[in-house]
Amino acid sequence: MALSQPTRPLSHGDLLARRLGPPVPFGPFEALLLEGLARPARSCPAGDEIGEHGAPLRPRLIRSGWAGAVRTLQDGRRQIFRLLLPGDCIGISATPAALAVSTTLALTPLETVELEPVTAALRDDPERHAALATAFALEAARAEAGLLDHLMRLGRQTALERTAHLLLELRDRLAAVGLGGVTHFPLPLTQEVLADTLGLSTVHMNRTLQELRRLRLLRLDKGQAELLDPARLAGIADYAPPRVSTLGPASSAALREG
Amino acid sequence: MALSQPTRPLSHGDLLARRLGPPVPFGPFEALLLEGLARPARSCPAGDEIGEHGAPLRPRLIRSGWAGAVRTLQDGRRQIFRLLLPGDCIGISATPAALAVSTTLALTPLETVELEPVTAALRDDPERHAALATAFALEAARAEAGLLDHLMRLGRQTALERTAHLLLELRDRLAAVGLGGVTHFPLPLTQEVLADTLGLSTVHMNRTLQELRRLRLLRLDKGQAELLDPARLAGIADYAPPRVSTLGPASSAALREG
DNA sequence: CGCCACATTGATCCTCTTCAAAGCGTGTGG
DNA sequence: CCACACGCTTTGAAGAGGATCAATGTGGCG
């Protein structure tokens, strides 16, 4: 089946390349990656905060596990801004020594790899690592587009629509790094976390998932999600799959050739 | 009074400098600004779309008037992601030839200035315009922080809280370019636009504004807003004024000295 | 004067929240 | 092997916050 959740098929560098690579051809910079990323991943348990709101950013790659960018109101209400999946980067910023605008919370046991050497190289010799810089910039653009999708969900969609939309987004983002296929993917989150992502109460999150099951659109089992009718789900969610890149056709072609 | 809404006191360059400048000392790059921005502003009426979702980005400065970054669902539900005020920039991106992830809609009559020459200069000789690059990067970070604030509003705050929070944000952003003071500022938006920003129905937006008036927190008159008790409003909204910058203290100091 | 966009109001409905309790699965210690 | 605790899911009932529908007011402007 397409339920490919490889134990550890990709090296750190391969994971990053797969995640950032497609539209931009990596060459001289692969070496840099391998050099900087050969070190072992660092682990932390679920619930750990790695990087707090207001603290200096530290660039990291998520090697395995899920995290969330989160902020909490005085009275405890919590909002997750973005779910962070294997292959996602945290703390990359064009501003030197920037401060985190949200807390990063491990939602499952997490393995991360320091990207400091990579960003340092980028800072020291931007010319030489232009492709890398472009890849990171592209990634930032994708992240921003993701935030806008999320705003659309929270501002204008119903609980059912939001949930369908998020499931499709997660499917596509996971597929991009080889985790899961068109219908199956890992979903190791509690309903409380999903609720905090989608701006719902836990109770209503539960009932919304039930509704999706009742409609024969979704199956959940042991941290795995199965989309039984992705097309219908996309209809409900008004979901558009992510563009291949945020580059225009012209420059995209130019990059492929360059 | 602090109700300073100058007719046209600032040059294009001064407006930009005031908006981007504070933490980063502008020097050699002012010249560039003035060179590139001497040209007259271009006007368009309210309702015009300048830059559509999916079209190539074009860098612009809002000289006067308000715009919104917006996206619409198939069925017409609309979400405004970010209100764009005088001094705000549109279409700045680290990726060359990026595509817009949202449509920019003029909410009032609008005057804009092309920033193409500025971004071109940045692209051609990044070394020489490092301060400018930093300023734009900082600005991008601020914009992202603003998106997270907005997500918090839409995901976890009530109509009253959202409205209070947005009003305070607008006050501070306007004050940063000399429009309005601690209690007064221009607010040339219809309730429908506010509703589409805050993820509410027009009717409920109306009632929420009434509630704020009833609580003696807000007065609206002729496109001007008056906050009658900013502190209490901040309490309701759980509002934290924006940090001076997103730079850490160390690098912030370094920049001031450099 | 009459039009038009915008603001306001009333009534009703429904989505979602809240509170409280009960299932369920898994791991732990006795 | 059972008892128990703990985290997560599920269920019920009640209520609030907002949406929706349909008018009515109001002010600026040709």
> What is the rounded Rg of chain A?
18 Å
How many structural domains can be distinguished in the coordinates of chain A?
Answer: 1
Structural class of chain A: alpha+beta
Helix/strand order of chain A: HHEEEEEEEHHHEHHEEHH
Explained architecture:
2 copies of one chain form a homodimer. Chain A is of the alpha+beta class and 258 residues long. Chain A has a single domain, classed as Jelly Rolls (Sandwich), CATH 2.60.120.10. Chain A is 43% helix and 17% strand. Chain A contains 9 helices and 10 strands. Chain A has helices at residues 12-20, 28-37, 116-124, 130-156, 159-175, 191-198, 202-214, 230-237, 249-257; strands at residues 42-44, 60-64, 67-72, 78-84, 89-90, 103-106, 110-114, 184-186, 218-221, 224-227. A 4-stranded antiparallel β-sheet of chain A has the order 1-7-2-5, with helices on one face. In chain A, strands 4-3-6 form a 3-stranded antiparallel β-sheet. Chain A has a 3-stranded antiparallel β-sheet with strand order 8-10-9. In chain A, strand 9 (218-221) and strand 10 (224-227) form a beta hairpin. In chain A, helix 5 packs across helix 7, helix 5 packs across helix 8 and helix 6 (191-198) packs across helix 7 (202-214). The first copy, chain A, is globular and about 55 Å long. Chain A starts with 11 loop residues before the first helix and ends with a helix. Mean pLDDT of chain A is 85; it is low at 1-7 and 246-258. At the A-B interface, strand 4 and helix 4 of A face strand 4 and helix 4 of B. Chain A binds a DNA duplex (30 and 30 nucleotides) through residues 158-159, 190-192, 200-204, 206-207, 210.
